[in-house]
Amino acid sequence: MPVVVVPDYLYINVTAGVLYSIGKTTLAPSDIQNQVINAINQYNNTYLNNFDITFRYSKLSAYIDEANDASILSVNLNAQMELRFYPTINQAQAFSLNYNNPVVSGSVISNGFTYNNTVCFLNDDGNGNIDLSTLISGNQTIVLNNVGTINYTTGAAIINLPAITAYNNKIALYADSVSHDFTVKNNTILLIDPADVNVSVTATA
């Protein structure tokens, strides 16, 4: 009987700031933006979305440079690791997650969700502890201390999430990799979700 491998996923959140020469193209900014987005998606389809592979920052950067309009002068590229989990509403739960790559301390942060009628998020304190926090008048305020841990060397994280009342589609836990390049092995698929691609375009003479 064949064995079916149920994959885990490590997503890459890509942000690109593009500088282009307005005098070297007749394309609109939105056209330049779409070219870069298409190049990123093509890179994902060609080199990622599979098991046992390595994301190469320099290769993605070069792929964007080679695949796009000659008016593009530079691309400021940022690639962030993203893990996703899907809590049951109104139920405290524990989650075991793993980036399987070394993580920069102080870089772990989640998107927002509702806890105790307050929009909150998860973030690490730089010492391996994960807190549940909110923003009050623009200032980060801890709501609950030590709701999880992160091992910066291995990338392994434990989240003891209290009973939250709402979130939008997923809880995404972002982290910066110590290296520009990162790798997945065994049953983990590395990929770029097109919804995670953010490209801004700036014109110059």
What does this structure look like?
- The chain is mostly beta strands.
- 15% of the residues lie in helices and 47% in strands.
- The strands form three sheets. Strands 1, 2, 4, 6, 13, 15 and 16 form a seven-stranded mixed β-sheet that branches.
- Helix 1 packs across helix 2.
- The termini are far apart.
- The N terminus is likely disordered.
Task: Give the gist of this structure.
The protein has 205 residues and is mainly β. It has 2 helices and 16 strands. A hairpin with a 2-residue loop joins strand 9 and strand 10.
Number of strands: 16
Biggest sheet character: 7 strands, mixed
What is the first-to-last residue Cα distance?
64 Å
Structural class: mainly beta
The chain-level mean pLDDT equals: 93
Note poorly predicted spans. Answer: 1-5
Count of runs of 4 or more consecutive helical residues: 2
* Cα shape: globular
Radius of gyration equals: 19 Å
Helix content: 10-25%
Portion in strands: over 45%
- Output the helix-strand order: EHEEHEEEEEEEEEEEEE
